[in-house]
Amino acid sequence: MTAHGLAVQSPPSAAEVLDRCRALVRPALRDAVARMHPWVGEMAAYSFGWCEVGGAPVAASGGKGVRQALAVLGAEAAGAPGRAGVPGAVAVELVHTFSLLHDDIMDGDTDRRRRPTVWKAYGTGPAVLAGDALFALAVETLAAVSQGPQTVRLLSTALGDLVRGQADDLLFAARPWTGPGRVRPDEYRRMAEHKTGTLLGCAAALGAALGGASPTAVAALDRAGRQLGIAFQIADDILGIWGDPTVTGKPVHGDLRERKKTFPVLAALDSPLPEASRLAALLEADGEPAEAAALIEAAGGRSVALAEARRHVAAAEVALSDAGLRRSAVDELRSLLDFLVRREL
């Protein structure tokens, strides 16, 4: 394709965006971890996938780096160089890792990324300590930049929401499948925004704030990230029931075997169709996951979940469109939408 004799350059792929942003953030993230107490820093490095127990280095990327990319792109969307968003990227990555360390303890998860979780490898007390140290380091990282008070407020608000989401998620497990005490889809939506969306929104908002964006633009990027988080969580729920194990790395019907109250299940239970009643009885009897999956689909749970995820993707798109942000950065943010959610819908 050409325009007036000039080649029209395609926007970079999501993989290229993630690679570029990780390369920009990684040195600062490693420098931050290097300032920690050596033992605590080893646990942090292990959690990032940089070393084995004992500190022996490994050649690992430490995850996709989506939150890092959102912070870098948030700065670029504000018209600043991507490096302006690096302190925000580091802070959010530290908080995200802190939350995973504590989540694994609360959930009793023994494996993450195909190796023992930090609490399993080092012990519960040390893992709690490492998580606390990561959070303290995140606050220190933001407090050191010129916009410290504003950015620390953004991070502290996000942390409060993250705690709310985790609390609701833990409480959902003890609530019944049916009756007035059951979990409603709108409650799940709020939980997903707080537990998953808040850090995505915070990352983009921090990058924009560090890049000198207006309060309106900062708020728009926060909204976009939160909507992306809800869509991502619901898409992940769909994969947790019907995803291909060779692609997801999870067993077929894994979420049903673990009796998780995911969005497709809750949407199916809210259906007026007779399959909803049969599903409720099956879940209360701890029935066969394959039969439950079929009933969820027959009651409309899968189609409602797909529509809900698409609605939140569209809301993220609207937030990005209305903020007066730099076009090239918005295009790259949209490529992350496609990568994280839309390709699964």
3D structure, described in words:
The chain is an all-alpha fold. The chain has a single domain (12-344), classed as Orthogonal Bundle (Farnesyl Diphosphate Synthase), CATH 1.10.600.10. 70% of the residues lie in helices and 2% in strands. The strands form 2 sheets. Strands 1-2 form a two-stranded antiparallel sheet. Strands 3-4 form a two-stranded antiparallel sheet. Strand 1 and strand 2 form a beta hairpin. The two termini are 29 Å apart.
Individual helix count? 16
**How many beta-strand segments?**
4
Rg over alpha carbons: 21 Å
State which percent range the strand residues make up: under 5%
Q: What is the rounded distance between the termini?
A: 29 Å
Average pLDDT works out at 92
Number of domains: 1
> Which class of secondary structure composition applies to the elements?
mainly alpha
The CATH architecture comes to Orthogonal Bundle
Q: If strands are numbered along the chain, what order do they take across the biggest sheet? A: 1-2
Largest sheet: 2 strands, antiparallel
How would you sum up the global shape? globular
If you consult CATH, what is the topology? Farnesyl Diphosphate Synthase
- The level 1 CATH classification is Mainly Alpha
Q: What helical percentage do the residues reach?
A: 55-70%
Series of secondary-structure elements, N-terminal to C-terminal: EEHHHHEEHHHHHHHHHHHH
Please give a handful of descriptors for the protein shown:
single chain; mainly alpha; Farnesyl Diphosphate Synthase; two-stranded antiparallel sheet; 16 helices; 4 strands; 70% helix; 2% strand
